[in-house]
## 1
Amino acid sequence: MRKHPKRSGMQTKSAQLSAYDSLREGIAQRYPLLSDRLRVIAEFALEHPTDMALGTVAEVAARAKVQPSAIVRFAHALGFGGFTELQQVFRSRLVAGAVPSYRERIDGLRRDGSFQDSSNPHELLARFASEGTVSLENLQESVRDADLKRAIGLMGQAHAIYVLGLGGSFPVAAHLTYVLRRLGRRAILLDGLGNVLVDHVLTATRRDVVIAVSFRPYNPETVQLVPEFHARGVPIIAVTDSLLSPIVHGADVVFEIPDMPEAVLRTMVAPMCLVQSLAVGLTIKANEPLTSGATRLASSPR
Amino acid sequence: MRKHPKRSGMQTKSAQLSAYDSLREGIAQRYPLLSDRLRVIAEFALEHPTDMALGTVAEVAARAKVQPSAIVRFAHALGFGGFTELQQVFRSRLVAGAVPSYRERIDGLRRDGSFQDSSNPHELLARFASEGTVSLENLQESVRDADLKRAIGLMGQAHAIYVLGLGGSFPVAAHLTYVLRRLGRRAILLDGLGNVLVDHVLTATRRDVVIAVSFRPYNPETVQLVPEFHARGVPIIAVTDSLLSPIVHGADVVFEIPDMPEAVLRTMVAPMCLVQSLAVGLTIKANEPLTSGATRLASSPR
DNA sequence: TGAGGCATAGAATAATCATTCCATCTGCCT
DNA sequence: AGGCAGATGGAATGATTATTCTATGCCTCA
């Protein structure tokens, strides 16, 4: 139904014009031929597309100061079977304006290259690279500035920064720890060595902060540890793939980096980037402009 | 709220948070308390907000593979009077996203050009993300297919794969090791623990392979170890930033990933991607199509 | 093993909604 | 002036839709 609007009339004149745009043109075109009441509706429709998209016939009629039946007649006059069909076009505008969403993005990605033949190593590389690019773009759009600032604020106040990331997320944790230390912060990497993970909980206080990184399927130890930190009152910054993740509960700031539906393999590219931004952002806020800190970092061994 | 980090868990529904955002958080917060079916709906709602906004109860139920009544129960569980009320919130997201689409897009474009103001965390994030994107593009172009194939060939013949990456390159090494092990390869991460790095050289043979990752300024231990492996006749795959790098000598395959001149901080995004391609490419060549390996990987804890 | 409490599915119901119909009105032509 | 065609308002209708209800299944705990 929604997928195939099935408009009987009002076919798009040019393929590149959106259904909504061509509808606007169609309305403008027929405007001189319309009756008085229908003109009122036409004006209202062009001026309040959102109302047209979301309202009921009665609501739209009331707002346009006409009778409900006139609305239906208006739809008929444009070649639609009824108001419902007309409304679909207005709704398509809202959908198009909404955040692109991963799925659509990936669809575009798939269209670009012939990703099917993965037996060629170079195509595989191209595929991972593309997925990484998409995830980076998405990262920019999905991360809220306020969250970044709050996270950096928490890190700035913290006496020590505990970094928790196990399994596949460990590289992210390691990178964050590395950068933080290079920038002069007291960072503690919880690496699970010697099975003393729980002991760290006992040393952390509410004056510290925990940055927990975990993606589906969530590492059991990470899932277990986060609530224990929370119970001790340690502020928590969570980097995960969904608000439904087990490490979200109790977190003060949550960075949601959704998985790409068709990703062959989680790339960790976006989390790495985010985490790096946190560390460097912290330094910039606390100290001096970026260049100075970057210089120090660049001259350290890798 | 922010002034006094009292942390009641989850983010406070401050005024600047949109109704939609706080709904998302509300759903996440209650998620653990929900029943099975309601959790399915919660996941669907967070993943398909547009469907929630525009669909009827029956349609949403069908797409989420649940009964219509469950949808209504879900709305009740969140404190709404019914699905209609819940839907209003999802619609508000569409409305909010639609109107500023033009104006904001232009604002965003203008922001793109001025990366100078790095004091804003979000701009910093955008900057890192952009650098990552560029480095990924460069990676695709600069890496030669023949090198990939030779590297994969060496790894395929190897009895064990030694992964050497210290300092800033350690996350790359950790990631490679993780993926290799998940794919059933014998991978040995040289992490420097216990100062027994040199001992690994004694166990490696010409039937093994070393993948060494190091970037300027090169980690001394890595620089020292690579020739020792070479002296024992162990094949070497080098991932570094220049052909003049100290780990290039004696390497059988060299992947050169140059630093970006204006980069604030090396992002490690490209090496991560390359290394992942090597691991997955190895599996594809040796075994079956990608999907199988990816499935196994996806079901492992992170 | 059996009883009790929840969760669920599916049908029944109540509400809402789009659409149609018809009486009335308006303007126009003869 | 009278008749006609189209337009309009408002109520009636029929369809769609949200919501409620109840029987059934499932799990838990005694």
## 2
Amino acid sequence: MRWEELDQQPCSLSRTLAVVGDRWTLLVLRDCFLGVRRFDEFEKRLGVTRHVLADRLKKLVEYGVLVKVPYQQRPLREEYRLTERGLELHPAIMALVSWGDRHMADERGAPIRHVHKGCGQAMRPVMVCSECAEPVSARDILVQVGEGWEGQVGELLPAAR
Amino acid sequence: MRWEELDQQPCSLSRTLAVVGDRWTLLVLRDCFLGVRRFDEFEKRLGVTRHVLADRLKKLVEYGVLVKVPYQQRPLREEYRLTERGLELHPAIMALVSWGDRHMADERGAPIRHVHKGCGQAMRPVMVCSECAEPVSARDILVQVGEGWEGQVGELLPAAR
DNA sequence: GCTTATGGGTTCTTTTTTGGAACTTATTAG
DNA sequence: CTAATAAGTTCCAAAAAAGAACCCATAAGC
């Protein structure tokens, strides 16, 4: 499967990965959430080649995750800002960071602390059910084929065991 | 920056991406959560080349996300299972799937429905604060340098604006 | 006992993607 | 007139992925 086919797959994860499924894209977004907006600041902080950075930023703009906003005229200079759609990737990034904090940290601990403005505490993200607000883990979830997809695709799910 | 340097970066996202930061790895994990365990079933479902699949599975085993468990002797056959560490990637995958459901779905809607066994309802994941249990969005969080990291790395965070 | 199937790979060649460095363009500062 | 800045683009070499063929142990069919 090539990149171009990925956003047509019958799977929301594949489709999301068509947008953010390489390491540079997610690192660009991390920096966006930290307040970085300009091409050269991304370049300095990430250590990515300009070539690849330009490509990823363009793709993120095409998918509506970032917008280019002019911050000066003559010469025209534009910066990249998160859209609403981009902001909604925050839980995904937080979940990945949180996993890294738990499983990939060295003796210095987590490099970054997230303080919840609401309660003033250092927090980690917890996933709860949108319906009953209870915490959910992998074991608590039953997976079913979506309504619009019954019989559409052979083997959307593996045979039950 | 090359792949090999990624898991040493002063950033938990980089370190997590050293493990799962390419599209195939995350698609392999999606299938693990759906109950897939064997090499040839991954291959059939994903449309990945055997070469890349073998490489990704090996890496996931090295990082402790999957374990190889023999399911028959003579000839020896092994399957791949999620470890505790692997199960903890579930929130990250759910968050990515949920974003795809919202922003990348077509007129057929979400391909997969997640039913919370606890309450019996179709759910989407919501991120809440571990300390006060309130929902959190990007705007509700203040980012600070971690305790063990003060002064260690220049420019862990961009200059405040 | 010969052929084919199965599961889990490895090897080989071709194509695509990156990395790295130099070049471009518009404008201002010295 | 020269250099600097910001945001790219172009070019070539290196690395990674795609695609297909091959390998190995065992078992099942005939």
